[in-house]
Specification:
Bound molecules: pyridoxal-5'-phosphate
Number of domains: 2
Cofactor: pyridoxal 5'-phosphate
Structural class: alpha/beta
Pfam family, one: Cys_Met_Meta_PP
Distance between the termini: 76 Å
Strand content: 5-15%
Shape: globular
Keywords: Aminotransferase, Pyridoxal phosphate, Transferase
GO molecular function, one term: transaminase activity
Radius of gyration: 22 Å
CATH class of the largest domain: Alpha Beta
Number of helices: 14
Number of strands: 12
CATH topology of the largest domain: Aspartate Aminotransferase, domain 2
Protein name: Aminotransferase class I/II-fold pyridoxal phosphate-dependent enzyme
């Protein structure tokens, strides 16, 4: 009988754990050393070579979670993203990316790539044909993000992977919003899977880290650049991240359930204009999300009714906190127009589909009744303020 692959929570809890041979403790020992005996060239251990015991252990867990042969852990999501892109792109190459992208990635490409002689095209549409139309003879990479930030649009993983295979192009995904709990892109043919581990992997808003998972061959190529760029993660943080990831499965499933309930409640709310959540049958990407995701995720966004002020809405919330980041066990919201997209003009934002009343919502693990009540009181208060301003 073929051994069955271990299930999600078993991998989260045990995979890659280091054995405490000396004291038989049940937790991985932490090896902070930067100096190891020189055995032979392949075995030389050093934090920036991504091969200390704790780094190797946690990499095995992440590879198992993403159904990948191999993985590396980085000092941030952006270190993982920049290293992966640059490992596959050289002067004269071209990359196709979706326009609806994490802001840091968008900036990296549009502000830095030209000086390395790398050209790029952004697609506004998310149909596979929109990506294929941008391919040139020198295109080496297609880079996607699904579900996307902040409107939770869905891109078709297997269609993108088919296009890439036909054209001999490497496919890369930022899988941060889904987490490995909800989506395993490698099962759909995607080559390189990237995470900001600062988000669901860490899950407690206290760790900054990144991760990449792929085949041994691709990871060797990424490693060759990674050790030169030097974006490794401290072993202490690696150890903390291992602890956090033991509960990732149960955290994310609770966040999925809360997001679904919240999306349904907001759909019914008179002060809400629109709700964007892939778990809603009305979402344009719902059928696709159902096909390629195992859960719809803990992120949603919604639009306040015309005339309601996003800023005073944020101030009225009592449990849910305004915050730049996401994916922690605590619920947080963000107004893209006031924060991440504030440097764009209203017209530019509109081109992205981001209205001034749009709110991005990262669901935590609190009791959903408390969160719905908090939303309701804040929406009602904001509505009253809008009415009294209009009458004064
Ligand atoms: C936060 C985030 C990143 C960047 O990760 P850092 O850990 O902040 O460097 C990249 N992609 C997505 C989707 C993110 O949410």
């Amino acid at each position: 009988m073929k051994q069955k692959e271990k299930g999600l929570n078993t991998i989260c809890t045990h995979e890659g754990a280091l054995e405490d041979k000396e004291f038989k403790g049940s937790v991985s020992p932490l090896y902070m050393g930067t100096s190891y005996a020189f055995e032979d060239v392949d075995l030389k251990r050093y934090p920036r070579y991504f091969n200390t015991p704790n780094q190797e252990g946690l990499s095995r867990k992440i590879a198992a979670l993403e159904h990948a042969e191999s993985a590396l852990i980085f000092g941030s999501g952006m270190a993982a993203i920049s290293t992966s892109l640059l490992a596959f792109l050289r002067a004269g190459d071209h990359v196709v990316l979706q326009n609806m992208l994490y802001g840091g990635t968008h900036n990296l490409v549009s502000e830095q790539f030209e000086k390395y002689g790398i050209s790029y095209s952004f697609t506004t549409g998310l149909e596979p044909s929109d990506f294929e139309a941008k391919i040139k003879p020198n295109t080496r990479v297609i880079y996607i993000e699904t579900p996307s930030n902040p409107l939770l649009t869905i891109t078709d993983l297997s269609a993108i992977s088919d296009i890439c295979r036909r054209h001999g192009i490497v496919s890369m995904i930022d899988n941060t919003f889904a987490s490995p709990v909800n989506q395993n892109p490698i099962d759909h043919g995607i080559d390189v899977v990237i995470h900001s581990a600062t988000k669901y992997m860490g899950g407690h808003s206290d760790i900054c880290a990144g991760a990449v998972a792929s085949t041994k061959e691709n990871m060797e190529r990424i490693f060759q650049l990674a050790r030169g760029l030097g974006g490794s993660l401290s072993d202490y943080t690696v150890w903390l991240l291992e602890r956090s990831m033991k509960t990732m499965g149960i955290r994310v499933k609770a966040q999925n359930a809360n997001a679904q309930r919240m999306a349904e409640a907001l759909m019914q709310h008179p002060e809400v204009e629109a709700v964007y959540y892939p778990g809603l049958p009305s979402h344009p990407g719902h059928a696709l999300a159902k096909k390629q995701m195992k859960g719809f995720g803990g992120m949603l966004s919604f639009e306040l009714k015309e005339g309601l002020d996003a800023s005073s809405f944020q101030k009225s919330l009592k449990i849910i906190k305004p915050s730049m980041s996401l994916a922690g066990v605590e619920s947080t919201i963000l107004s893209p127009a006031l924060t991440s997209h504030s440097l764009l003009s209203a017209e530019e934002r509109a081109a992205f589909g981001i209205k001034d009343g749009l709110i991005r919502f990262s669901l935590g693990i609190e009791e959903i009744e408390d969160l719905i009540a908090d939303m309701d009181q804040a929406l009602t208060k904001t509505k009253k303020e809008a009415v009294s301003t209009a009458h004064s």
